[in-house]
Amino acid sequence: MNKNWMDGKTVIITGASGGMGKGVAEKLIKEHGCTVIGIARSEEKMKKVVAELGDYKDKFTYKLFDVSVEKNWLEFADYLKENSIKPDILINNAGILPKFDRFQNYTVEYIEKAMNINFYSAVYSIHTLLPLLLESPSPAIINVDSSAALMTLAGTSVYSASKAALKSLSEALREELRGKCYVGIVCPGFTKTDIFRDQSASDAKGQKMLNMVSTSCERMVKMIMNDIKTKKPLGVHGFDAAFMNYFGRILPVQGGRLFSAVMKASKMPLFDPVFKD
Asked: What is the DSSP string of 206-218?
């Protein structure tokens, strides 16, 4: 195993009970000998992660709490101090994807929920844990963002806003902490995880099209791990993310219109709330 800066580090990962969070946790433990503290809300899923780690299970512990509540982070920080646990790396991976819909159809409560989980959870975690992280000889913060932060699509107003906020926060921190702490941003495109659990894409055509544009979770995890290994400041992964990144910079207005036209022409039930009157 080639020596890497993150070998043997203590890592905190939110959303570690499944998908990309679980995949990254497994690779950190098995390939880099890291000690991982996973954070999620489902104990059933966390127990499954422990069981699947087998001989490596002693390298993984978990805490169950809602990451969108600041008080929970303050209590978690106290737990770390009381147990003399010194974190080196924080990976903010938890997130939700609201249903594709027009902005006026979202309730304020639903908007706040998305902002709290996708943005404020990272605000709370970083604000609370940064003093502890900076005690490490090689501190790092990696925020798993989204291609939605690169270009906003019709029907994603709330999700894109939350992810754009996270990207802006990360970019400011990257400069403020330059030379003191590595800050990385990862912007995946559609990935085959359970983030689509709240979407109405159960029809065969819709699922087939989603699968066509989605990157496998395993491949996405490999790309994220490579970003972290090389301390890449920004990772854009998935061909859909690459297109959104390009059009978002070169043709921000016409690009959004083009993508909207493609979404509408697909006639996927997933997008019906956005385009059907």
From this structure: HHHHHHHHPBPHH
The count of structural domains within the chain is 1
CATH of the domain at 252: 3.40.50.720
**pLDDT digits 0-9 by tens, 152-170:** 999 999 999 999 999 999 9
State the residue range of the domain holding 215: 10-275
Residue 91: strand, helix, or coil: strand
2 lies in some domain: no
**Cα–Cα dist 153/95, whole Å:** 18
* Six-digit token string for 188: 């995946």
- Where b means 16+ CB within 10 Å and e means fewer, 111-122 reads bebbbbbbbbbb
- Does any domain span residue 140? yes
pLDDT band for position 201 (50/70/90)? very low
- What is the pTM (predicted TM-score) of this model? 0.92
Q: Which residues are 39's β-sheet partners?
A: 14, 63
Sequence-separated (6 or more) residues with CB below 8 Å from residue 176: none
Could you tell me how many residues make up the chain? 277
DSSP of 117-142, one letter per residue? IIIIHHHHHHHHHHHHHTTSSS-EEE
> Residue 130 to residues 78, 86, 122, 134: CA-CA distances in angstroms?
13, 11, 11, 6
CA dihedral over 169, 172, 175, 180, signed as positive or negative: negative
